[in-house]
Design brief:
With 387 residues, the chain is of the alpha+beta class. It has two domains: 1-34 and 162-387, Naphthalene 1,2-dioxygenase Alpha Subunit, Chain A, domain 1; 37-137, 3-layer Sandwich (Rieske Iron-sulfur Protein). The chain is built from ten helices and 18 strands. Strands 11, 12, 13, 14, 15, 16, 17 and 18 form an eight-stranded antiparallel sheet that branches. A four-stranded antiparallel sheet has the order 4-3-2-5, with no helix packed on it. A hairpin with a 5-residue loop joins strand 3 and strand 4. The longest helix is centred in the last third of the chain and has 31 residues, at 307-337.
Length: 387
C-alpha cells in the first residue's frame, strides 16, 4: 500500500497506542497470539524429557522432547484444575506430574495417571491430554504460535533471506549460556521500532558508527526487516572494538562477504536474530502490559575452541552490552515523551522503510490505529473491536 492509498503512510502510529489498555488487549488478540514466537533451539533439548517453557500473552507453553525423540508443544496447564505443571525456564522430567493433585502426563502429553481414578467414572483419559500448541522448527530454532489465523509459516516468512541465512549453520548452533530476561518500562512496540530504526545509529551508537562507518543499511519485506553493517578495516580507538576488529578470525563456513558483516533480521512482529560471524543470538520483546515489556534473549554459536574466537565472542558481548544500555535510554526517553499531550504522531522519512512497514501492518490489523487522538474509554467495546 503506497501513501496515495494509505493517508497515514507518512506517519508513525499515534502515541496513544503505546500506552492504551484497550489497544493493548487488541494487540494481544490480533497481533501476538497469531504470531510465531521463538522458544529455544533443538540443541537445548537433546534428551527425552528435556523441556523449555515460554510465558507470554497470558499463557505458559512447554516444548518437550518425547521418548520417541519427537518435539511437541503444549500449554503448561493441568487438565484437572488448571494448575501450572512445570516451573522454571527449563528442565528434564520423565513424566509431567501436577504438583496439586498428582495428575500425570507422559512426554507425549497423554494423561497416564489419575489418583482415585474411580472417582471419575466418566473420565476418558484419551480426551484429557495436555492441550496441543502448534510448533515449527526452522533451521534448528523452535517456534510456537497460540492461534493460526492463516498466516505464513516461519520458513515462508524467512524465504526472502533463506540463501543469506544458510551459511551460518543455524542447525549446528549450541547455546553459549542461559536465557536472560530484561524488564523494560516501555511499550513493546517501542523496542521493535528502535531495533529497525537505522537513523539513530550514527547519532546514538558511537561504537557502531566506529565499527561500521557509513555502511549501515536497512530494507523491509512483507514479514522480515533486514539491517546490516560491514565491520570496516580502519581500527577503532575504543579498546574492545579495536580488539574485536583485530582478533575476529576467519570463519571457514562463511563466504567472503560474510566474514566481517553484522546482519540483523527482525521477524514480524517481535523477534530479532542478531547474526554475527562469531555467534548468533535471538531477542524477543514480550508484551507484559501497555507500558511494560520483557526482553528475552540468548546467544548461540557453532562450536569453535580457537582462542581468537573465544576472544571475539567476549568482545562482541562487551560491545553490545554498551549498545543495549544506549538503546534502553533511548526507548525510555521515547516512552516518556509519548505521554505528553503535545505529541500525536511523527513523520516517517522515505528511508524509514521498516517503520513504515510495521505501522502499515498494525493499522491493517487494528484500524483504530489510524486515529491520531485516543478515543473515549470503551471504544473497543462500542465498535465491536473485541469480537
Amino acid at each position: 500500500m503506497d501513501v496515495e492509498s494509505d493517508p497515514n503512510g507518512d506517519w508513525s502510529l499515534p502515541a496513544w497506542t503505546y500506552s492504551d489498555p484497550e489497544f493493548f488487549e487488541l494487540e494481544m488478540r490480533r497481533v501476538i497470539r497469531p504470531s510465531w514466537q521463538v522458544v529455544c533451539h533443538v540443541s537445548d533439548l537433546p534428551q527425552a524429557g528435556d523441556y523449555h517453557t515460554l510465558d507470554y500473552a497470558g499463557e505458559s507453553i512447554i516444548v518437550i522432547r518425547g521418548d520417541d525423540d519427537q518435539l511437541r508443544a503444549f500449554t503448561n496447564v493441568c487438565r484437572h484444575r488448571g494448575a501450572r505443571l512445570m516451573d522454571g525456564p527449563s528442565g528434564c522430567a520423565r513424566k509431567l506430574v501436577c504438583p496439586y493433585h498428582a495428575w500425570t502426563y507422559g512426554l507425549d502429553g497423554q494423561l497416564v495417571g489419575v489418583p482415585m481414578k474411580s472417582d471419575y467414572p466418566n473420565l476418558d483419559p484419551r480426551k484429557h491430554g495436555l492441550a496441543v500448541v502448534e510448533h515449527e522448527v526452522f533451521e534448528g530454532f523452535i517456534f510456537v504460535r497460540l492461534e493460526n489465523d492463516g498466516g505464513p509459516s516461519v520458513a515462508e516468512m524467512m524465504a526472502p533471506y533463506w540463501d543469506e541465512v544458510q551459511p551460518y549453520r543455524f542447525g549446528s548452533l549450541q547455546a553459549m549460556g542461559r536465557v536472560t530476561l530484561r524488564p523494560r518500562a516501555v511499550n513493546w512496540k517501542n523496542v521493535g521500532d528502535n531495533y529497525s530504526d537505522a537513523l539513530h545509529i550514527p547519532v546514538a551508537h558511537p561504537g557502531l558508527k566506529r565499527l561500521m562507518g557509513n555502511g549501515y543499511g536497512v530494507e523491509a519485506r512483507d514479514h522480515v526487516d533486514k539491517m546490516w553493517g560491514p565491520i570496516i578495516d580502519r581500527l577503532s580507538n575504543a579498546p574492545s572494538e579495536r580488539a574485536y576488529q583485530k582478533y575476529l578470525p576467519h570463519v571457514p563456513h562463511l563466504p567472503p562477504e560474510r566474514q566481517r558483516t553484522w546482519l540483523y533480521l527482525k521477524l514480524w512482529p517481535n523477534i530479532a536474530f542478531d547474526i554475527y560471524p562469531d555467534q548468533v543470538d535471538f531477542m524477543q520483546w514480550l508484551p507484559v502490559s501497555p507500558t511494560e515489556t520483557l526482553i528475552r534473549e540468548i546467544a548461540y554459536a557453532v562450536p569453535d575452541d580457537r582462542r581468537e574466537m573465544r576472544a571475539a565472542r567476549y568482545l562482541n558481548w562487551r560491545i553490545n552490552r554498551q549498545v543495549n544500555a544506549e538503546d534502553t535510554g533511548l526507548i525510555t526517553r521515547v516512552q516518556q515523551g509519548m505521554a505528553s499531550e503535545s505529541f500525536t504522531v511523527g513523520p516517517l522519512g522515505k528511508s524509514e522503510v521498516a517503520l513504515r512497514s510495521f505501522c502499515r501492518k498494525i493499522r491493517t490489523l487494528i484500524p483504530e490505529a489510524r486515529q491520531w487522538h485516543k478515543p473515549a474509554p470503551g471504544w473497543s467495546r462500542r465498535q465491536g473491536s473485541t469480537t
